[in-house]
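Sample pair:
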Amino acid sequence: MDHPIFALFEEGHRFAPASGEAPSLGVLRTITSEGRKFGFGLGIISQRPSKLDQDVLSQCGTQITMQITNPSDQDAIRNSVEAAGEDVLRELPGLTPGQAVVSGDSMNTPALIQVRNRITGHGTESPDVVDDWTTAYDQRQREPTRSEPADFGEGGSTGVQDLD
């Protein structure tokens, strides 16, 4: 792949629900288990980790967990983050806005962090990727293609057209 892709799915429990009732679930399971080798990274954002499919959640190599008070959501984090000890899990209900626990593949041990306030202006919009992809596809379709003469089974075709 020439350009890696990273996608964020907000309200991830709607796209990869534990109930298994979403057309997108199979695709997200495939992306989370195999996407990295094809340059496809994925972020799942959800305030309800207990409602996320466990196969998808277990494939999330790094987790950034903010305040969680619901016991079933705490259990989901406990089951999906091997490095998160009981000390870390006890901290989750008391985290303040901006505090998070980072754990998983990116960290040797879970770490409590404070997310700083943004210092840059917003100043941008999301690109219209469907329009961009359509434009790129249409442009590709207009490019000339190289073709060779057909061999209709009579033999003797060398792939070079005889101009006699």
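The beta strands are 5-9, 40-44, 62-65, 99-104, 111-114.
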